[in-house]
Amino acid sequence: MFMRRMVLLLLVILPLASCGRGSDDILRDFYRDMAEGHADAAVERFSPDLHKKFGEDELQSAVARWTRDIKAHGGLADVSLRGGVVTYNELALYDVTLTFNDGTTKSLQTSLVRVDGDWYINAAI
Q1: What is the DSSP code string of the chain?
Q2: Using 50, 70 and 90 to split pLDDT, how confident is the model at 125?
Q3: Average pLDDT over residues 35-55
């Protein structure tokens, strides 16, 4: 009986432990990486499919443009998210509002995809 309970407990805990960081955290970190000038970290958050489709140089260029935009507004004050995980816990669609230090805001949509248990940016428009 004890062994059966232990097996059931492990079946519940292990999937939760292997989930890693949530899509909300990854998304906020993506925009904060750009705001703090960590371009390589931001690029690493793009999905493997985007890396294959566009290549490292194109993704670095996109991050550099977004970083300049954030800096032009005095930096990033807040990242507000609406939405979240849909479709079998494998896709997350968000409405994102970036609030800059100069008081302006920018609204956009971002999607994340879960690959091998980890969340990646799949689109940021």
Answers
A1: -HHHHHHHHHHHHHHHHTT-S-HHHHHHHHHHHHHTT-HHHHHHTB-HHHHHHHHHHHHHHHHHHHHHHHHHTTSEEEEEEEEEEETTTTEEEEEEEEEETTS-EEEEEEEEEEETTEEEEEEE-
A2: low
A3: 96
For residues 103 and 73, is the Cβ–Cβ distance under 8 A?
no
At 64-73, the pLDDT tens digits run 999 999 999 9
Would you say residue 120 has pLDDT above 90? yes
d(CA 112, CA 6): 34
